[in-house]
Structures are given as C-alpha cells and as structure tokens.
Amino acid sequence: MNREKGFTLVEIIVVMTIMGILTATGVVSYRQSLMDTRDQKRIINLQNIRSSLELFRSQNVNNVYPVALSEIESAGFVIPSDPLSGLANTYTYSPQPIEVGETCNNTTYYCRTYVLTTNLERLGTSYAVGPNSEVIHP
C-alpha cells in the first residue's frame, strides 16, 4: 500500500482551532491585565492628588481645602492625567463644608473635607478617597 506522508484536512482544522482558542484566551487575558494596570494607576493618581490637597491645606492660613482642583494647580501641584484618555478631568473633586446643605466657598463656609472620585475601568465601579478613607463603590 502506498501512503503519502502529510496531514489530513481534519488534523489541520483541529490544530488551527486549538491555536485560535489559545490566541483568543491570551488576548482577553492581556486586555484585562492592561485594564487592571490602568485602574491601579488611577488609584495611585487619586492618592497623589489627596497628598497634594493635604499639603495645600497645611500651607493655607485657614487650614481649609481648596474650592476647586485648579487652586492646587496654581499653587504648583500637578494633577495627573488619566492613563487611558490622557485627560485630567477624569478625577472629580467635591469639597464639602462642615455645615450640612451649604456649599463651601472659603469665605462664608470653609471647605473642611472633600470626596475625590474616579471610575475604574475593569470593575465598572467608582473609587473614592477622602482625607482619611478609601472606598470602592459598586
């Protein structure tokens, strides 16, 4: 019997299917690790902004937080940009006075605390920090 050496069409299709599955799994895993890395960078950026806010408060005569993040930029602190979009406006700063229901302006009502938030890409949640806390909101 004369048999030729080589692969059958079925064998080639099986091998290509296995390679496709392995490639798809690798791509999904790689994309998720990139999202995790960007989320960790966002958390680090929030912590850096919080440090800048604390330094701003300690240098302020009235010992208050700024009304807007632009105030810490004008004081020489840098607001980091988002690792994906490159924009700094992905971080939301909400100063809050001690008086409930009022808006702080540092003349009538002083900004005594704040909430700083960003959205995490992988978990689809927001991450918030304050002067003494860190919370992930589902």
Task: Record the SSE blueprint.
Layout: H1 9-59, H2 69-74, E1 92-97, E2 111-119, E3 126-129, E4 134-137
Antiparallel strand pairs: 1-2, 2-3, 3-4
Could you please describe the fold and organization of this structure?
This protein has one domain (9-137). 12% of the residues are buried. The chain has a four-stranded antiparallel sheet, covered by helices on one side. The chain has helices at 9-59, 69-74; strands at 92-97, 111-119, 126-129, 134-137. It is of the alpha+beta class. The model has no long low-confidence stretch (mean pLDDT 87).
Radius of gyration: 25 Å
Oligomer: single chain
The shape is rod-shaped
State the low-pLDDT regions, or none.
none
How would you sum up the major sheet? 4 strands, antiparallel
Distance between the termini: 68 Å
Number of helices: 2
Strand order of the largest sheet: 1-2-3-4
**What's the SSE pattern?**
HHEEEE
Mean pLDDT: 87
Number of strands: 4
Query: How much of the polypeptide forms β-strand, as a percent range?
Result: 15-25%
Q: Helices and strands: which structural class?
A: alpha+beta
Q: What is the total domain count?
A: 1
Helix share of residues? 40-55%
Characteristics of this structure?
138 residues, alpha+beta, four-stranded antiparallel beta sheet, 4 strands
